[in-house]
Amino acid sequence: xxxxxxxxxxxxxxxxxxxxxxxxxxxxxxxxxxxxxxxxxxxxxxxxxxxxxxxxxxxxxxxxxxxxxxxxxxxxxxxxxxxxxxxxxxxxxxxxxxxxxxxxxxxxxxxxxxxxxxxxxxxxxxxxxxxxxxxxxxxxxxxxxxxxxxxxxxxxxxxxxxxxxxxxxxxxxxxxxxxxxxxxxxxxxxxxxxxxxxxxxxxxxxxxxxxxxxxxxxxxxxxxxxxxxxxxxxxxxxxxxxxxxxxxxxxxxxxxxxxxxxxxxxxxxxxxxxxxxxxxxxxxxxxxxxxxxxxxxxxxxxxxxxxxxxxxxxxxxxxxxxxxxxxxxxxxxxxxxxxxxxxxxxxxxxxxxxxxxxxxxxxxxxxxxxxxxxxxxxxxxxxxxxxxxxxxxxxxxxxxxxxxxxxxxxxxxxxxxxxxxxxxxxxxxxxxxxxxxxxxxxxxx
Amino acid sequence: xxxxxxxxxxxxxxxxxxxxxxxxxxxxxxxxxxxxxxxxxxxxxxxxxxxxxxxxxxxxxxxxxxxxxxxxxxxxxxxxxxxxxxxxxxxxxxxxxxxxxxxxxxxxxxxxxxxxxxxxxxxxxxxxxxxxxxxxxxxxxxxxxxxxxxxxxxxxxxxxxxxxxxxxxxxxxxxxxxxxxxxxxxxxxxxxxxxxxxxxxxxxxxxxxxxxxxxxxxxxxxxxxxxxxxxxxxxxxxxxxxxxxxxxxxxxxxxxxxxxxxxxxxxxxxxxxxxxxxxxxxxxxxxxxxxxxxxxxxxxxxxxxxxxxxxxxxxxxxxxx
Amino acid sequence: xxxxxxxxxxxxxxxxxxxxxxxxxxxxxxxxxxxxxxxxxxxxxxxxxxxxxxxxxxxxxxxxxxxxxxxxxxxxxxxxxxxxxxxxxxxxxxxxxxxxxxxxxxxxxxxxxxxxxxxxxxxxxxxxxxxxxxxxxxxxxxxxxxxxxxxxxxxxxxxxxxxxxxxxxxxxxxxx
Lengths: 445, 321, 176
Description:
The structure holds three protein chains of three kinds.
Chain A: E1 5-12, E2 17-23, E3 26-31, E4 40-43, E5 47-51, E6 53-58, H1 71-80, E7 83-88, H2 99-112, E8 116-119, H3 135-140, E9 147-149, H4 158-167, E10 174-177, E11 190-191, H5 194-199, E12 203-204, H6 207-223, E13 227-229, H7 235-246, E14 251-255, H8 257-261, H9 283-294, E15 300-301, H10 330-339, H11 346-360, E16 378-388, E17 407-417, E18 420-424, E19 427-428, H12 437-444
Parallel strand pairs in A: 1-4, 1-5, 6-7, 7-8, 9-10, 10-13, 11-12, 13-14, 14-15
Antiparallel strand pairs in A: 1-2, 2-3, 5-16, 16-17, 17-18, 18-19
Helix pairs in contact in A: 4-6, 6-7, 7-9
Chain B: H1 12-28, E1 43-48, H2 53-65, E2 69-74, H3 86-96, E3 100-105, H4 110-116, E4 123-129, H5 135-150, E5 163-167, H6 174-185, E6 189-193, E7 209-211, H7 214-219, E8 224-227, H8 243-250, H9 254-258, E9 265-267, H10 280-284, H11 290-309
Parallel strand pairs in B: 1-2, 1-3, 3-4, 5-6, 5-8, 6-7, 8-9
Chain C: E1 3-7, H1 9-27, E2 33-37, H2 41-57, E3 63-65, E4 97-105, H3 109-121, E5 126-134, E6 146-150, E7 158-162, H4 164-167, E8 171-175
Helix pairs in contact in C: 1-2
């Protein structure tokens, strides 16, 4: 059972100060001048209290690629970033396209205990884009899968995409599309633009993302289904989503922290830490996605945490793998790019990084408000500090972060996962105290 | 000069210095004894991950004329073809004691990765990386243009006012990119001619004009016409419909050759596709500088190796000798 | 930094005139002579000597330049030097009496490099050395045949030669 905690003086969503009592994994009381005999007191003066963050797009690499990351190491990284739940993408080995694999992932997450792992199922068998995977079986399994994606690959065949959109309606599922026309991006290495023309790297044009999104929102409209767009990266894509929502199409979209901050100018120098899919774009695109996140066109921030071993990054650009780790830095990057610039406030951060992702993913027990009776999923964040981001800030198994050596604001001081401290005074807790994972799970369903 | 990776960041003073030293090197090549003792005791490694006999033997000749020791590393059949990484290959060379590494690699940016990685302390010369740059080619092209124009009076001169037309697959050409930067740095006027599919979408910031019609460009009477090889091995057929159509619209045939003003030269980095981008009449005419380019290539590469290896090492190298 | 003048303009002129006579005396005339100056100021001196010799002997003597940069053995001890042009007069050096001309003789390494450079160009019959200033401190067995002036110096001192064509004024100074 989790211990009783008295959190004093926290700024709820960055606003008024309050004390919070956590008992039996639940927020028991909120007020001022609170206390409990024998309970540990956490002095949260000056810390922003946020609901535990929920990442709708994480790569935990297990089963199959444990050299880069495991569910244990990945959820530790998540906890250090203030996350209490992560959705695990299915591009594992074997691919998570059956009930068996998703249930295994769920069990591994429960055993680790650092964050709730909600598996995402593949849309097609082996993510090959040819036949639908057993979406229904995954939905009714113990893993209760609701989000399906072939992420890494685009569901390119329009007929398969239509069928998938239609099929998941029967269990309130959602298809999360990785929008990338494969024919327009054969051999692509970076954003197609002025930088790629100079560097002699094959371009990944914005239209390859936008044309798929345009097609998919029309398909979603036609079949009356909901659609989620992964890692949206271009100004044109924001425009399309805006148009679709205005039309009443049930579409949601996510943006990664790196697309809120970094541009393709960083590719000069050929440092493969900046190689990612979809690629870093232009300054205009960064400004457009920031605006889109601020005005609600883009619903959430999702990290697309993609660990890789060093030999896949310390090499020539063309040979390097795509991806950046992002769980540990996400909140700090959003703080710098969106809060410090005045585009959004902490209440919006709670929405785009906790409430909305949980809602889109239909994950109960997470993304819940900081109110009495709700599960104790809490992140306490010190927004007043700043520092250089180093490898010491990374807690997963891989170090392919584009922020190493960069100044970032803030620091997660405490994270509570179902009332259990996973980050204590700025450090990831080495050994978690046993907690009743199964009952927590069945309660929340 | 610590490395020569590109012409994009090569300033005019250094570029002219290389051209002028190449003049001196060229002079020594007409002596009875062509060999110079200048780089004796230095080791130059030719690290070629892509097939290229011409460039490799050019660098080899340049190094040997300066009495440097040359080690040739060809990727095919080596540990690289068994999956050895660039990093491990580089560190093996470092352990052997290379003073300079001449790299040709199919991945754009590989020489820069090698130079900035900290894996080796040797100077790096880019002998062609992917579709990015081929700086010594551009330098020998500039040298050739200058020499044809000014002859014995070349030393110290730039290319101000000279007009150069570059024709062909600009999109995939490292020779084109290197020439665009170097020729404009030296004051020349550069026009690119290609089908729209073979010009990058975003060249509006390049200091060049882009024209799709070869006859229009040639009518302006350029001083040099540089034909690029159509790289059949790099692309699928969708860039232009047929070789015949390409040759008709963008090939330098006898008619176009005759229309050039007196003194205009025809250039080609080689190897040529005779009959495709360049006709035999053009390739073999008096205007053609194809063979001089090869000779000048050795002089330029001697100058580059000299600048990289002869003087005292910069602080950058950590003070080692 | 105190610089004292060891040769004034008139001294330089007299020294060169004397050297021109000595060359002609040693060679028994102007036949087969080729003067090669070592850049930069050696070239100026070689040209002047050629003019002087021509006036005295009433016949022209070819003069040129011999760059030794690429043959030096001390390149790695200095920032990279740019070579200067080498200009061998028509008629070449095979079978000729080559007189190398330089402004200052110090360690002797430039002259050793010059001998190597000559060897790569051809085969002179005789090689002689004419120097405006010999400041001692030889590191190699190199001896000048024609000397303008011997100037004993400390190793740390600097000997500066100025010639009108190169520097706008004329004279040799030595400074600590």
